[in-house]
Amino acid sequence: MPVFEVSEYQERIAKTKQRMQQQGIDVLFISQPANMNYLTGYDAWSFYVHQCVLVALEAEEPVWVGRGMDGNCARLTTFLSDENIVEWPDHYVHSAEHHPAETMVEVIKARGWDKKRIGVEMDQFYFTHRTFLELEKGLPNATFVDGDTLVNRVRLVKSEREIEYMKRAGKIAERVMDAAVENIKVGARECDAAAAIAYAEYSGTEEFGGDYPAIVPLMMAGEATKTPHLTWTDKRYVADEAVLLELAGVYRRYHCPIARTMFLGKEPPQIMRDTAEVVIDGLQKTLEFVRPGVTAEQIEAQWRKAIAHSTIVKESRLGYSIGVNYPPDWGEQTISLRPGDKTELEPNMTLHLIPGIWYDDVGFEIDASIRVTENGYEHLFEYPLDIVLK
Amino acid sequence: MPVFEVSEYQERIAKTKQRMQQQGIDVLFISQPANMNYLTGYDAWSFYVHQCVLVALEAEEPVWVGRGMDGNCARLTTFLSDENIVEWPDHYVHSAEHHPAETMVEVIKARGWDKKRIGVEMDQFYFTHRTFLELEKGLPNATFVDGDTLVNRVRLVKSEREIEYMKRAGKIAERVMDAAVENIKVGARECDAAAAIAYAEYSGTEEFGGDYPAIVPLMMAGEATKTPHLTWTDKRYVADEAVLLELAGVYRRYHCPIARTMFLGKEPPQIMRDTAEVVIDGLQKTLEFVRPGVTAEQIEAQWRKAIAHSTIVKESRLGYSIGVNYPPDWGEQTISLRPGDKTELEPNMTLHLIPGIWYDDVGFEIDASIRVTENGYEHLFEYPLDIVLK
Questions:
Q1: Which residue range(s) make up the domain with B206?
Q2: B327 interface with A at CB cutoff 8 Å
Q3: Were A268 and a residue from A41, A79, A272, B7 both cysteine, which residue would form a disulfide, CB within 3.0 to 4.6 Å?
Q4: Same domain, residue pair A134 and A167
């Protein structure tokens, strides 16, 4: 059964319909797995084939359309009634002759929505160009409009129950970083440290279990610290090597990222210490500025002001909003802390601030995952804001 | 540096160009992460933003285009020369004003490919409808054609080195299943068993480390055995409950799936025993039939013949080809063992046969991951073909 009360899904659907009305969308075709989960509870690793949730202004309940063998996943994890769970036949999977969108077209026609304005998530992975072509071919009287990130924006402000889930994810994140620090040591293989990290992610705490993160452990050592987004090898850690860690705790698909930099020795190079000092001080000053009413770009400007006295230049965004998600990304693809993003912060938005620096001669990552409160912010996890020496 | 010899990538590129010529494609725009890896070695968890590899008939080397901060990932993991690593600016990420495809358009123009026939992977996730619209807008003189699964088909027949990697993945798969069987027991939490499975996946063996699978552990217990594709909860296993396991061993992105059914007791229900007997016998008879020259649909027909005496009906495909991959799927999206697939088997193709049964009253999964040999087949992992009683 779905993890939230049915009334909470109904509120989310109502907010979605409100935005649909504002954007002139009658039917929203949702293929992003986190958006599908958010509106119905659907939770299965079935997003490697085409599936969707349809929200129509005129229909009370959304419709799930997916592969036949996943229909029972929908029955087990959503609140949807059986008439709103529609299955496409298995021979449509990876077929040259058929496409799952054919069934989606049939559903839209059968419900009389084929002359409506249909919103599609144009730039979400899991919505391919081919799916669009099939919809266009099968629904010649429909008008297609962009509904990209519409549901993502509804997700921005979390409910009390969602915040509780984020905090549980934060508790797991602390344990995940503990597992990393304990297992990353001179002589250990990177893959064994990764294994211990995954163990902590999935196992969670004694009170509540963990879930899989939308991004596997990113853990760059030695030369690889000049870049983010690499995973592990089976190399052994050597003395006086830096390790960048970008990890997460997850509770029921809600993510709390956690990032730190380790140095396997007592004397990090001067350039790393200098970088750490500037970045940590800059992050603290930026956090002090966080409160409802300030905009995403104002936060980033504060960060730039705080590090202006140094030689550090960070071209990439300082952070982004977080919440429920599926691979390949735990970011919500809405708020980006950077110039031009004028989104005003509201209470119960949750953000990941990650001032990562990846130069050829030094890499450094540290972060804060926070909730915006009525007057400021609170941390979702507690972990010392410093280089981890070992 | 890339994990294969540069000459192996060059052979793969040559085969890709051959198919491009056959299909009338001058430039292939590749966004599927496994295809990017296969042709260049590129290996990073950066596929949550838009990136591509361009293969042009007239250019010796492919071009990688990705996010600025991932340029060093390309420098560290591919054989590409610096002029063929092109970065898009960070403010294009999840932006309402800009799209990463703008840089891809610029690269195509700068190299004089903007009047060519450009193949795109129309139905691959990671190639969104919006990306297509941006290409179409930016390259009005190009002709776009479907290049979907073109590289996937090149991947079908593995090299000796790739087979060695698949066998290593098979060794890891055996350990992964051992970890599952050891940790799934009455009273244990599902999340703790999942943690032990992930540990085995990432850690690998003492001789070689593991890698992350394209699909997290799928582990359905009790009522959930009527469906595939669910992950874990923090419930505790209870006596006389069945557990379906769909797991994998992975070595350097090469996958060997492994699936078994456990029963937490000594006396599985009669219906499960009957199902197991039919399915295992059917799988064995099907495997005996596997050899070069037979077609995918002939193999499936053999399976149907072998179970025809029973009441079992399997509507979904019996299996598919496997190899290098990234989330969300370890299947190659080429061969499907089902009616209509006339692909002839060749030596060094690798297949996953998984006759999974998910009825409301019984679920049962068992599998074989195999390599097609000169005369028949060999198993990629060794594990008893039976229900695991515990």
A1: 160-389
A2: yes
A3: A272
A4: no
